[in-house]
Write a structure and sequence with these properties.
Blueprint lengths: L2 E5 L13 H4 L2 H5 L11 E5 H14 L4 H20 L4 E11 L5 H11 L4 E8 L4 E11 H12 L4 E10 L5
Antiparallel strand pairs: 1-2, 3-5, 3-6, 4-5
C-alpha cells in the first residue's frame, strides 16, 4: 500500500495507534472549552485509499478541515473505549469482523481465540466475501468482561480490516 502523510494543522506528533492520547488528552480539555486553545500538531501516515475515503466523508459532513474530522474521530474512539470499559455483568453480544485470511496466521489465531472462549460462544457464521476476505459474526452470552476480552483480542489482530462489537445486558427489557 502507498502511504500518504497528512499534515493536520493542529497537531505535531508522529506516533501510531493513538499512543499520543495517553500523554495529552485530559477529558476536560477534550470535551470542554479549553481544547481549542491548547492544540498540538501531529503527523499521520495513511494509505491512499483510506485517506481518500476520509476526505470524502469530511466533505460530505461539512467539516472545515481534516483536523476537524480527526478530532471528531478521536472523540468517538475515546467514547467507544470508555463504553467498552464499562462492560460488566451478564451480557449478550456480537462481534462482527472482516479480515484478510491471507495474512499469515490470522485464521488460526481467530480460531484459537474462539476455542479459548468457547464457553461464551452461542453461534458463529463465517462467510467468504472474496478470494482474500472473510466476514465472521460471533454471537456471545456470558460474563461481560470475558466477552470484552474476546472482542478486543480479535479486533487487535493484524489483518482485521473492520470490527464491530455490540453488547447489552442479558436481562435488559427491549
Amino acid at each position: 500500500m502507498i502511504a500518504n502523510s497528512i499534515d493536520c494543522s493542529e497537531y505535531e506528533i508522529q506516533r501510531s495507534n493513538f499512543e499520543f492520547l495517553d500523554e495529552f488528552i485530559d477529558k476536560s480539555k477534550l470535551f470542554g472549552d479549553t481544547m481549542e486553545t491548547e492544540l498540538m500538531r501531529i503527523g499521520v501516515s495513511l494509505p491512499d485509499n483510506l485517506l481518500g475515503k476520509f476526505d470524502e466523508i469530511i466533505e460530505k459532513r461539512g467539516y472545515s478541515s481534516r483536523s476537524e474530522g480527526i478530532r471528531d474521530a478521536i472523540r468517538s474512539y475515546i467514547s467507544y473505549y470508555e463504553w467498552m470499559g464499562d462492560i460488566k455483568g451478564n451480557r449478550v453480544g456480537t462481534v462482527a469482523v472482516i479480515y484478510d485470511h491471507t495474512k499469515r496466521g490470522i485464521s488460526n489465531t481467530i480460531t484459537d481465540i474462539q476455542h479459548h472462549y468457547s464457553h461464551l460462544i452461542k453461534s458463529s457464521v463465517h462467510i467468504h466475501l472474496d478470494h482474500d476476505n472473510c466476514f465472521e459474526i460471533i454471537v456471545l452470552d456470558g460474563d461481560g468482561e470475558e466477552i470484552k476480552e474476546l472482542a478486543e483480542a480479535i479486533m487487535a489482530l493484524k489483518g482485521v480490516k473492520f470490527s464491530k462489537f455490540t453488547t447489552v445486558t442479558s436481562n435488559e427489557k427491549i
